[in-house]
Amino acid sequence: MDRLYWFGWQWLLPGAAKRLWTLADRFGSLRAAWLAPAEELVNRGGFNPKTVYELVQRRSAFDPQAALDGLAGQGIDYIFFDDPAYPGALRQIFDPPPGLFVRGRLPAATRPALAVVGSRRPTPYGLAVAERLAKEAAAAGVVVVSGLARGIDSAAHRGALSAGGHTVAVLGCGVDVVYPRENRRLMEEIAAGGAVVSEFPPGSPPEAWHFPVRNRIISGLSRATLVVEAAEKSGALITADMALEQGRDVLAVPGGIASPLSRGPNRLIKQGARLVEGVADILEELGVTALFKLPSGVESSPPRLTGDESAVYRRLSYEPATVDKLVEESALPAQQVLAALMFLEVKRLVRQLPGGCYVLRESGPGF
């Protein structure tokens, strides 16, 4: 059964999807490659003569069927490329993983998925925006995909879970390895209500090269990728580039021009990414506005406001106000004012004018 040999090779050569597809092509099947002697692996498979004998020894000592049975006992599934449960969107990318190790339950293929990525060291504004947008998108039926990293990733997962939605965490290590350690509880919550996924075998440590490799899966599982705060050389921009290469849409939340974490999203917007001011932009881009109704709390009135939102809202009128003016009058830090304005826009209480000024919406409720 070829599935067994794909599993075996993926275990021996983790994160080497391109090599496995090439190996299958050269040998006709991975079963043939599995049975091939060292010399043939060098001549036909292109393996390094200096390392091939160590690989053959590891292959001889490894029992794929026993390993598969052991994973089942740990609640870990291996979903092969040809399995009906393998995500259809991922099959379409250039170098899909031959199989996925999964804890939990993958969403139905008919569910629209959004990748949410960004800085590991975001501002309070970025954290708040990522969590709120993920929450509202998940409440509207969208699957939220991210990487369980610190910062924006974790905020997106938390937002989706708080809405009772489905979220998928794609790891750069084994699905039984907690990284970062502080996300142990979050990881368990995702596995219970969504899915924790990796192409790396259980037990694989979180090595630096794993993360750019796993980013293609984050974007590949998703119809669109949303970037919330990213420096110019952020890994989130690698995910956005991969999304474009895969023919997927890219969206970005704009930020203040003085913040280094705004440079990534702002550059993406200049290059054609969709500017996101609220969850309605996301749903429209995904083409699901007519398929799912937003929860009543998003569009109904009067919505509940936080202290910061109330402080900013009370200082707005139908005359345009700049962010600097709102900072001065509310005595709040600029990042908190920007976060409050973002949420007031989501709640359809204010709108932004060209030039960056804000006014009350004509139909907004009074407070």
Automatic annotation (TrEMBL):
<dbReference type="InterPro" id="IPR057666">
    <property type="entry name" value="DrpA_SLOG"/>
</dbReference>
<feature type="domain" description="Smf/DprA SLOG">
    <location>
        <begin position="78"/>
        <end position="286"/>
    </location>
</feature>
<feature type="domain" description="DprA winged helix">
    <location>
        <begin position="300"/>
        <end position="356"/>
    </location>
</feature>
<comment type="similarity">
    <text>Belongs to the DprA/Smf family.</text>
</comment>
<dbReference type="InterPro" id="IPR036388">
    <property type="entry name" value="WH-like_DNA-bd_sf"/>
</dbReference>
<dbReference type="GO" id="GO:0009294">
    <property type="term" value="P:DNA-mediated transformation"/>
</dbReference>
<dbReference type="Pfam" id="PF02481">
    <property type="entry name" value="DNA_processg_A"/>
</dbReference>
<dbReference type="InterPro" id="IPR041614">
    <property type="entry name" value="DprA_WH"/>
</dbReference>
<dbReference type="InterPro" id="IPR003488">
    <property type="entry name" value="DprA"/>
</dbReference>
<dbReference type="Pfam" id="PF17782">
    <property type="entry name" value="WHD_DprA"/>
</dbReference>
<protein>
    <submittedName>
        <fullName>DNA protecting protein DprA</fullName>
    </submittedName>
</protein>
